[in-house]
Design brief:
80 residues; mainly alpha; two-stranded antiparallel sheet; 3 helices
């Protein structure tokens, strides 16, 4: 495997580490996932049937973990 090195500011490093930690992955894996996002922008989300409710819901993007209840709580933690 090849190693890539680059410089970032202290703030950028904190942001990258924080986002990797929130996703529960290493910094390397976080950056690999970000690099795989198509340059043309986001694709149309896929719909799948929820195995618990039978409702049609958006599927997690390929290569991304599904959104969990804990993840939603973390996202909403800073809302007033």
């Amino acid at each position: 495997m090849v190693t890539i090195s680059f410089k970032v500011s202290e703030e950028e490093a904190r942001l990258i580490r924080s986002r990797a930690r929130k996703e529960g992955v290493t910094v390397s894996e976080y950056l690999r996932r970000r690099a795989r996002v198509p340059a043309s922008g986001p694709r149309k989300p896929r719909l799948v049937r929820c195995r618990y409710t039978g409702a049609m819901i958006f599927a997690a993007p390929d290569g991304e973990p599904p959104l969990t209840t804990a993840g939603v709580r973390e996202l909403l933690a800073e809302f007033p």
